[in-house]
Specification:
Elements: H1 2-37, H2 44-75, E1 84-87, H3 89-106, E2 109-114, E3 121-124, H4 126-142, E4 149-157, E5 160-167, H5 199-210, E6 213-219, E7 223-231
The structure holds adenosine-5'-diphosphate.
Adenosine-5'-diphosphate binds near residues 169, 170, 176 and 198.
Length: about 240
């Protein structure tokens, strides 16, 4: 009975958290749209910047809903159906290239290397795998200041593929570290950044569904390093 009650409590907290998080961008979109339609905002510059905010907030809503759907799908095991053995090199290469162009745009220095044979195989769902990499690299970009370094590297160690995302950003305090993978948990370092506290919960659900490991090393003020370990699949693709 206690377990049921705990489950119920978690579900209610989940729904309350989501409703609260979705309301914030909606309130802003509504506010700006009303101000434009009733003429409060009338000069061209202000109109332009208000429309930009509306676009930004709509994108944020879109991202949050996407995260949420992924999270729910993961927890109902729906996504595990697409697991296949595939070559991981091109996926890592794509992610590295995307990170490099984001780095140019946001003025972060990107380093790293994909130090694995082109023929390396893992069993995964492509979309989920990309989701993990995007969340980790996205966080590294968001929590690192301009001119900071983000390193994306892959190597093989003891029959495992090791992917590390390292940054010289603001780091995570020791008090926050045990909770960063919890649903809706936002660290004390995150106040200046927009976010929902869903990203790492999504990462953890994906990793757990594959039984993959993740380790985090971080120090406040110095940076963070997330390392994912994935078992290799032997053999060759047909
Ligand atoms: P969000 O970033 O939306 O708050 P996440 O679930 O992605 O949610 O991350 C949870 C928390 O972990 C963040 O609020 C932040 O405190 C911390 N965090 C995650 N990645 C990093 C990073 N690379 N550097 C510093 N802090 C991080």
């Amino acid at each position: 009975r206690q377990a049921l009650r705990d489950d119920q409590f978690r579900k209610s907290r989940f729904i309350m958290g989501i409703s609260h998080d979705l309301r914030t961008p909606i309130a802003l979109i509504k506010g700006y749209a009303e101000a434009i339609s009733d003429g409060t905002i009338d000069d061209t510059e202000m109109l332009k910047s208000s429309l930009e905010i509306i676009c930004q907030k709509s994108q944020q809503l879109d991202d949050m809903i996407e995260d949420l759907l992924n999270f729910v799908k993961l927890n109902t095991q729906e996504w595990n159906k697409h697991v296949e053995v595939r070559s991981v090199y091109p996926l890592l290469e794509d992610c590295f290239h995307r990170l490099q162009s984001d780095g140019i745009l946001l003025q972060r220095r990107i380093t790293g290397s994909i130090d694995i044979p082109q023929s390396t195989l893992i069993a995964t769902d492509e979309k989920l795998f990309i989701r993990v990499l995007e969340n980790l690299t996205g966080n590294a970009l968001r929590y690192t200041e301009q001119n900071g370094i983000i390193d994306f590297s892959a190597c093989i160690h003891e029959n495992q593929l090791c992917i590390s995302v390292f940054d010289t950003g603001i780091g995570i305090s020791q008090e926050d570290l045990p909770y960063i993978f919890d649903l809706f948990y936002r660290g004390t370092n995150s106040r200046r950044e927009k976010g929902s506290g869903l990203g790492l919960a999504v990462v953890k659900s994906i990793l757990e569904s594959f039984r993959w490991d993740i380790e985090v090393f971080s120090q406040k003020g110095s940076g963070s390093c997330f390392v994912v370990q994935i078992p290799l699949v032997r053999g060759e693709l047909p």
